[in-house]
Amino acid sequence: MVWFFFSCDEYNEEILKTNSGYWKETVSNTPIIGKWITSNGVKIGEKQVLVFQSYENINGSKSDWVMHVYQPTFLPPNQVIFRIYDV
């Protein structure tokens, strides 16, 4: 199952923390390059991949929950799209 969320709020580290754990960044931002005729080879946004880690595990082991944060260039900088799913 996949969930999509749209946020108009300022995207920051505080929204990535919960009572049961936190979302940890796995890699740095990856550019999204357009493949359509009108945007072929042009950067149309950035994608960030995060994995949920629980506070319950002392080792901070990763869960099966993954979140992609998309920051399209056609939206204002403070607006992002979240895609959350269970692997």
Account of the protein in words:
- By secondary structure, the chain is mostly beta strands.
- The protein has a single domain (4-86), classed as NAC domain (Metal Binding Protein, Guanine Nucleotide Exchange Factor, Chain A).
- It is built from no helices and 6 strands.
- Strand 5 and strand 6 form a beta hairpin.
- The relative contact order is 0.30.
Give a quick precis of the structure.
By secondary structure, this protein is mostly beta strands.
Main beta sheet strand tally, sense and closure: 6 strands, antiparallel
CATH architecture: Beta Complex
Rough shape?
elongated
Q: Tell me the CATH topology.
A: Metal Binding Protein, Guanine Nucleotide Exchange Factor, Chain A
Query: What is the string of helix and strand elements?
Result: EEEEEE
Q: How many beta-strand elements?
A: 6
Mean pLDDT: 83
- The share of residues in extended strands comes to over 45%
Superfamily at the CATH H level? Answer: NAC domain
Helix segment tally? 0
Estimate nothing, just give the exact number of structural domains. 1
CATH class type: Mainly Beta
Q: Which bin fits the share of residues in helices?
A: under 10%
Task: Classify the secondary structure makeup into a structural class.
Answer: mainly beta
Unreliable stretches, pLDDT < 50, 5 or more residues?
Answer: none
CA-atom Rg in angstroms: 15 Å
**Distance linking N and C termini:** 9 Å
GO molecular function: DNA binding
Subcellular location: Nucleus
Keywords: DNA-binding, Nucleus, Transcription, Transcription regulation
Domain NAC: 1-87
